[in-house]
Each structure stands twice: as C-alpha cells, then as structure tokens.
Design brief:
By secondary structure, the protein is an alpha/beta fold. It is built from eleven helices and 17 strands. The chain starts with a strand and ends with a strand. This is NADP-dependent oxidoreductase.
Length: about 300
C-alpha cells in the first residue's frame, strides 16, 4: 500500500511517499480503507522530535491519528463493527508507527465510532482529535448554563468546536482570535476579541467580574493573563501548559480516545448542529505540502488528506 512515512526526525521535507505492507490487525482491531485522514499539530511536533520521552516513535513512522474510512476486515473480537461499516476514529496507539496517512490503517475498536450517513468522510476525518479535545475540556471544566467562558484560539480546529459546545451548554462565550477571524467567531455564537497587548482590558470589558471558565488551546499569554481574568472560584483548563494545574489550580487535559463521545460529536455534525470547517484537502502524495500549510499556524479549520 502507499503511505507517507519518515525515517528521521525533522521538518516536512523528511516526509516521503513509500510502499508499506498492509497493516496486521489484532483481535480487537479492524482494518480500515482510508478515505480521509485529518492532520493535527501534534503530528509535526512528534515528527520533529519534540515529544520524545512522552510518546515513543518507531522509525520509519507513518504519522496521523485521525481517520475516516470503511472497514474491510474485522478482527476476531470486534462485535461493534463489521465489514463495510463506515467509521471515524481517533486511532491513537501507544506508539507512533503505523498511522492514518496511508491507504489502509489498523484501528483499535476502542477508538472508533460508526460514521453517520449524513456526515462526509472529510468532515468525519477532521473531527476526532479536535472534537474530543474540545468535548473533554468543556466537560472537565464543568461548563453550564449561565457561566461566562473565555476560549483561547477560538478560530482553531479545537477552539471553534469548544465555542460551539459551550454555547450549546448555555454559556456566554468570548473567544480570542486574530481580527481576520472575528466574523467566523461571531458566526459560532461567541464575542471575539484580539490577542496582544490589549487582551486583558478587552476581556474584562466583556466580563467585568471575570470568567467562570477559561479554556486554553494556545498557551503563553493565555496562561500568563489567567490570574487577571478568572472570576473568584473560576476554573482554567489547558491542553498546552501544565501551569494551569500546578500553579492555577485548574486542569491539564491530554485527550483520550472515546467512541461514545466521538459518536455524539459525529451525530451533532451530521445533523448540522456542530460546524466542522475544512481549511483544505490534499492528495496523499502532497502530504508534505499539507503539513507546511498547517505549520504556518494561520489556517482556519482542519486540513484533510485523501489517499
């Protein structure tokens, strides 16, 4: 099969289109023919060696954790899924080796959900990691109706979904984003404010008593300004900086596979209740170009590769 792989750590230039053996599946996995695979920033952080010691990488490695496709071979103990089922998955394994940027991938059933008929494969592939991250951070923070919530990086893949989930929960939401993304933030039901020197003043103007919840998907200034923006008794949740937990008494979240949560998100996306924005779609052979676009940090929505 064709796959994208790298034999050494480095930039997008180390990615190559190669021939690989079709993956073996264990008793609790299914073989999926990949229709679309979603890219995430963690992919290139692993590829550049930044997460060594946290995630083991076995070279040569195929990147990618997000996938949507069709089951072509079930394992010996996978009663949840059958041949021909359309699925989406946050197919993260214990090591990085055989990822989703390939024509076929072995998917543990503990990571997968059936794809609703009304959801495109591209949108399904864009949803797993970003959607589950947003869902799990919103739930960890305990967002409820009547609260005021600040979402950092609100136009990004995770932030845009978190905004929608917080709005669905009945919260008043403010989102940080560059000015070019402010209309998109408004369309999601939140009030946009800009990053930069005036962040604290702009945020306080929207929430004079502080925020009940801060959701951090970018780090840096988001953590530095949190003490000035949290309401008494407020909670901060971060996916980027452990200071949220160690210094601010909040939470640090490392997203986990969750088929039930993924199915819930997919259903919302299929019926139009949850918007999943696609920033661009690339062929498998153009995966390096796709990652270069992602690594600019200026894309709105998710980038998808279609083998």
């Amino acid at each position: 099969m064709k796959a994208i792989a790298y034999t050494e750590f480095g930039g997008a230039e180390v990615l190559q289109l190669v021939d690989r053996p079709e993956p073996h599946i264990g008793p609790d996995s299914v073989l999926v023919k990949v229709v679309a695979a979603g890219l995430n920033p963690v992919d290139y952080k692993v590829r550049e060696g930044y997460l060594e010691g946290l995630i083991d990488t076995h070279l040569p490695a195929v990147p990618g954790w997000d996938v949507a496709g069709v089951v072509v071979k079930p394992g010996l103990d996978t009663p949840e899924l059958a041949e021909g089922d359309e699925v989406l998955a946050y197919a993260r394994k214990d090591t990085v080796s055989d990822g989703t940027l390939a024509e076929y991938v072995a998917v543990p059933v503990r990571t997968a959900a059936k794809k609703p008929a009304g959801l495109s494969f591209e949108a399904a592939a864009a949803l797993p990691l970003a959607g589950l991250t947003a869902q799990q951070t919103v739930r960890r923070a305990g967002v409820t109706a009547g609260q005021t919530v600040l979402v950092h990086a609100a136009a990004g893949g995770v932030g845009s979904i978190a905004v929608q989930l917080a709005v669905r929960a009945g919260a008043t939401v403010v989102g940080t984003a560059s000015p070019g993304n402010h209309d998109a933030i408004r369309a999601l039901g939140a009030t946009p404010i800009a990053y930069g020197d005036g962040l604290v003043a702009a945020a306080r103007a929207e929430a004079p008593d502080g925020f009940d919840v801060i959701l951090d998907y970018v780090g840096g200034q988001a953590i530095d300004t949190a003490p000035d923006l949290l309401a008494p008794g407020g909670t901060i949740v971060s996916i980027t900086d452990a200071r949220a937990r160690t210094e601010l008494g909040g939470h640090y979240v490392w997203v986990r596979p969750d088929p039930e949560g993924l199915a819930e998100l997919a259903a919302l996306a299929a019926d139009g209740s949850l918007r999943v924005e696609i920033a661009g779609t690339y062929a498998l052979a153009d995966a390096a170009e796709a990652y270069r676009a992602l690594e600019t940090g200026h894309t709105r929505g998710k980038i998808v590769v279609t083998p």
